[in-house]
TrEMBL record:
Protein name, entry field: DegT/DnrJ/EryC1/StrS aminotransferase
GO biological process, one term: polysaccharide biosynthetic process
Keywords from the named record: Pyridoxal phosphate
Annotated SUPFAM superfamilies: PLP-dependent transferases (SSF53383)
Organism from which the protein derives: marine sediment metagenome
GO molecular function: pyridoxal phosphate binding; transaminase activity
Residues spanning the membrane: none
Gene3D superfamilies: Aspartate Aminotransferase, domain 1
InterPro entries hit by this protein: DegT/StrS_aminotransferase (IPR000653), PyrdxlP-dep_Trfase (IPR015424), PyrdxlP-dep_Trfase_small (IPR015422)
Keyword Protein transport among UniProt keywords: no
Length: 90
């Protein structure tokens, strides 16, 4: 997902990757942890967990990486290298 202010990836082991990246000095965040159909404001639509499995999977698996105008090419490569290293240990 890329919206010019969020660069998010998917991983089934989000907490492990986030913890690893934090240890490497890379801040991450989780955006939109609750899918739209499960938001309290939309309860009146009477959707339930399981109604939109892809949206629910995204909510469980998304991890936002650093994304801001001042991010240097060197920093981008550092983040990529650390993620690649984490993946290789799996």
């Amino acid at each position: 997902l890329h919206t010019f202010h969020i660069f998010a990836i998917r991983t089934k082991d989000r907490s492990s990757l986030a913890s690893y990246l934090k240890g490497e000095g890379i801040q991450t965040s989780v955006r939109y942890p609750v899918p739209m159909h499960l938001q309290p404001a939309l309860e009146y639509l009477q959707y339930h967990e399981g109604d939109f499995p892809q949206a629910e999977a995204w909510a469980r698996e998304n991890l936002s990486l650093p994304m801001y105008p001042e991010l240097t090419q060197e920093q981008v490569e550092y983040v990529c290298d650390k993620i690649e290293g984490w993946v290789r240990t799996r």
